[in-house]
Amino acid sequence: MNAQLTSAFTPRLISHLRAQFSRDRQPSHSNSSDVQVKIPTIMDGIGRSNLLPRQTREHRLHLAETFSMEGSRHSWKFGGDGLFTSIYDFFPSQQSGEYLFYPIKVDPFTFDPRQGGTQLSPLRAYAHQVPHYYLQNFGSSTSHPDTNEYAAFAQDTVRVTDHLAVNLGVRWDLQTFTTAGLISNPLFPPAGKVPFQPYNLAPRAGFAYSLGEKRPLVIRGGYGIFFVRIPQIYNSVLQTENGVTNSHVFLNNADYYDHQVFPSYPNALVSCPLDAANCTLPEGFTQGVTHEVSAFAPNFVTPRVQQSSLTLEKEVANRTTLSLSLLNVRGMHLIRALDVNLPQPIALTYPLFDSTGSIFEGGYYTVDSFSTWQFSRTLECPWPPCINPLGRPIAELGAINEFQSAASSNYNGATVSINRRVARGTYFRLSYTYARAIDDGQDALVAGQPATVQNSFNPSTERGPSVTDQRNRLVLAFSAEPRPFHRGHELLGRFFNDWRISSVINYGSGRPVNASVSGDPNQDGNGLNDRLPGYSRNAFTGPDYATTDLRLSKMMRFRERYKLNFLAESFNLLNRDNQRVAITSNGMIANASTFSQSDVTANLAPYPGY
User: Which of 478, 494, 464 is nearest to 419 (CA)?
Assistant: First the structure.
């Protein structure tokens, strides 16, 4: 619902008052209530998705006022706006439970898990119903991440000469979050607190200059700072992941103590209704339980972007312009999550095996591991060596994902384009862009997921190509409306005139691919941040992309009052096979290998299998 009021106080002072109210409801349903089952490299998952069901209800009120005042050489604009958002979010993430079928050693007769037994492959373990791991989340499924946003601005456009115009402005932004539902955690004091940054002032400047009288060279440039709004999902996870009311269960069926409480496959440890607002862990259940925390860093500041641009444009022929555009965008204080509840890592070396089970070209994989090896025989380690459990500095808590304003990005791009405006029914545009984008692992779209930084003690190694880095992009667009028959050929013109042919041809080079490793080789309790040994983040390039779209249309008139439009469209006309790799909210990824815990001996050296 929209409303606006325009008022002229004087011939030169005009007010534009706008109000908008919107309501959005986005329900998503699950097609199963069964526990999710995953078999790595074979089956991504069956059963209830750990993202469904989900429901978001949003009410948003936007009020804005802009005053415009004209002078002899000045055009002033100033005003402000307020955006008030109320949200109800229902997201029972992974509360139905999940079984993971990794290689596991069992008794060859009873198929009960046993250290030193016969190893089953993931598919054989699934056939014998012997999962290796089980995990499930407990706590509240609902949150109310309400937020208010306020802004004020002032702008002056100065016509210095007939050839030069300068634009100067400044903008103030403030975003506030509700504190309702936030709970502090005495073990980690930053939990349950939201940032408040009231001094976000962003100056901006621009100019336009025309050089010459006939077909002048037009030069445009600008610079500005833009503060980035913080998505409400961050406030949502602050409410649901406080380390007090939420808990996470992770059970290893090969562990003696975990096996005693391991649920009977395919049942869930606790069966919670699909629409339950809260899923509660049984009283007194402590085995495999951790309490994860999400919190803003105490020194968190609002993310911001500095943008600089320069454009040169000239009409080189009648209705045809040639332009060159340069753009630089620098992101500063961008959000990046870091698990701050980890011990100092130590370098451990594992052998690399190919698909036949042979050591891969004599290769070894050195990883900064957050768990140590144990070489003495104990009840927990009857067949040493073993990998010790992860010992976190705050033992009562699991992962502490701290949202830090520590990431940065840099984009540089140049675009050359030729544009022919509509003339005699013909339009043509050709543009080519060369660009490069790098960053160090910003993750503003993945709040609520584990941190993506591989080593929390060395986040600088995340510097690499951005997930949006595309070096080359070519776009060709044209539209033609030929009229071959004129007076004296009305009958032929009825059939062959008034056809319009339009096409858009796109080509883009490949985007970066992150070669990940499943199985959590660095033992930080996070299976989503490990990369192929020896390669940095987004070190590979995915396949390129090309497509041709075509539209054919004709307008047929019937008398004076009626007309009929005929339309035919084809997408990817040439049927090019545009191959893709897995695309996630973190970009494109590919599991290049799997870290499998299996006791082996390589070059007379034993390696832990559990």
Answer: 478
Percentage of the chain modeled with pLDDT above 70: 91
Confidence of residue 603 (pLDDT cuts 50, 70, 90): low
For residues 531 and 338, give the distance between their C-alpha atoms in angstroms, rounded to a whole number: 16
Q: Is the dihedral of CA 536, 542, 544, 545 positive or negative?
A: negative
- Of 321, 357, 70, the C-alpha closest to 220 is 321
Backbone φ, ψ for residue 492 (5° rounding): -65, -35
Pair of tokens at residue 276: 């339950």
Stretch 421-438: mean pLDDT = 88
Q: Higher confidence at residue 472 or residue 561? A: 472
Indicate the DSSP class of residue 461: G
Contacts 24+ apart (CB under 8 A), 602-609: 602/351, 602/359, 603/351, 606/385, 607/350, 607/351, 607/385, 608/373, 608/374, 608/384, 608/385, 608/386, 608/387, 609/105, 609/115, 609/383, 609/386
Give the residue with greater pLDDT, 573 vs 583.
573
Q: Which residues of 472-491 are buried (b: 16+ CB within 10 A; e: fewer)?
A: ebebbbebebeeeeeeeeee
In which region does residue 559 sit, left (phi positive, over 0), alpha (psi from -120 to 50) or beta (all else)? left
Strand partners, 41: none
**Residue 138: closest CA among 31, 250, 54, 234:** 250
Amino acid at site 453: V
Helix then strand then coil, in percent of the chain rounded to 5, is 5, 50, 40
Look up residue 370 and give its two tokens: 């957050």
Can you tell me the distance from the alpha carbon of 93 to that of 450, in angstroms, rounded to the nearest whole number? 13
Grade residue 491 by pLDDT with cuts at 50, 70 and 90.
Answer: low
Report the run of H or E that residue 239 belongs to, with start and end: helix 232-240
Amino acid at 51: L
373 touches 393 (CB < 8 A): no
Question: Cα separation of 144 and 236, whole Å?
Answer: 7
Q: Rounded to two decimals, what is the model's pTM? A: 0.86
Q: 177 exposed, middle or buried (CB, 10 Å; 0-12, 13-18, 19+)? A: buried
- Say whether 74 sits in a helix, a strand or coil: strand
DSSP code per residue over 111-149: --B-TTSEEEPHHHHHHTT--SEEEEEEEE-EE---EEE
Amino acid at 462: E
- The dihedral region occupied by 424, where left means phi > 0, alpha psi between -120 and 50, and beta the remainder, is left
CA–CA separation, 364 and 440 (whole Å): 27
